[in-house]
TrEMBL record:
Lineage: Bacteria, Pseudomonadati, Pseudomonadota, Alphaproteobacteria, Rhodobacterales
Name the record gives this protein: Zinc transporter
Cytoplasm keyword on record: no
Pfam families xref list: ABC_tran
Native source organism of the sequence: Sulfitobacter donghicola DSW-25 = KCTC 12864 = JCM 14565
Coiled-coil boundaries: none
Name of the gene encoding the protein in the UniProt record: znuC
């Protein structure tokens, strides 16, 4: 059975329908990315999936006892607030030292525990948010524009970390992103979205689909090339058990 499934999900704000008859499912262990233009309802879909928005029609089914780890776009934290990463991970509820250590390690930033939150770079901060989501031992990680503000290499590194998390934890990952080809290359399945699912499939299938090209054109190939180039030779030593061949094969 899938982790989350929607059946004819329709969502409206006042009289404005933003999702219409959406049927999707996310299965255990897969990395799924939603791409779509601004205002196409991606965040609204995530809100409906986590139960924060009520459908006008249709249903959202979550597996019993499903644990969701949510990574927001960003959190606004006063840079002058004296708050260490360690303390931040203990909000709102205390976690064991070991749980915090493992979460930071899986997020790729084991060295940040004692650092001040306000002194972190954008990329480091996003990884701390990822670590915080991992504290839930989620069955599924949901990321809404988690790389906003990062440059392309930074975003590509973040997505590689996500792949590594999936590898070590076996959780499913659902992401919304504007990074198009960068994030698509890191996905098993891509949903191209514009109020409804326009097309879906492997990253290559979606990148070649007329529906996708009608929305985005073909101007983002450079990002894909960048991802592939770096992915080629960057980190086998970090994840010796992770076979990357599938990313270069398409
Ligand atoms: N709380 C709200 N009340 C009224 N309208 C809303 C609300 N949230 C979103 N909308 C509208 O719903 C539509 C879809 O918004 P949503 O944020 O889901 O799109 P998105 O694809 O995530 O956009 P972006 O890529 O710009 O983040 C937009 O027209 C937006 O103005």
């Amino acid at each position: 059975m899938s982790l989350i499934q929607t059946k004819d999900l329709t969502l409206a704000y006042g009289g404005n329908t933003v999702l219409r008859d959406v049927n999707i499912e996310i299965n255990r262990g897969e990395i799924v990315t939603i791409v779509g233009p601004n205002g196409s309802g991606k965040s609204s879909l995530l809100r409906a999936l986590i139960g924060a928005a009520k459908p006008a029609k249709g249903i959202v089914t979550r597996a019993e006892g499903l644990k969701i780890g949510y990574v927001p776009q960003s959190l606004s934290i006063d840079a002058t607030l004296p708050l260490s990463v360690k303390r931040f991970l203990n909000l709102p509820s205390r976690v064991s030292k070991e749980a915090a250590r493992v979460a930071l390690e899986d997020a790729g930033v084991p060295e940040l525990a004692s650092r001040q939150l306000g002194a972190l770079s954008g990329g480091q901060f996003q990884r701390v948010l990822l670590a915080r989501a991992l504290l839930q031992s989620p069955d599924i990680l949901i990321l809404d524009e988690a790389t906003q503000g990062l440059d392309q290499p930074g975003a590509a590194q973040f997505y590689r970390q996500i792949e590594s998390v999936r590898q070590t934890r076996g959780c499913a990952v659902l992401m919304v992103s504007h990074d198009l080809h960068v994030v698509m290359a890191a996905s098993d399945r891509v949903l191209c979205f514009n109020g409804h699912v326009c097309c879906q499939g492997t990253p290559q299938v979606v990148a070649d689909a007329p529906e996708y090209r009608a929305l985005f054109g073909t101007g983002t190939q450079g990002a894909l090339a960048l991802y592939r180039h770096e992915h080629d030779h960057n980190h086998d030593h970090d994840h010796p058990d992770h076979d990357h061949a599938h990313k270069e094969a398409s």
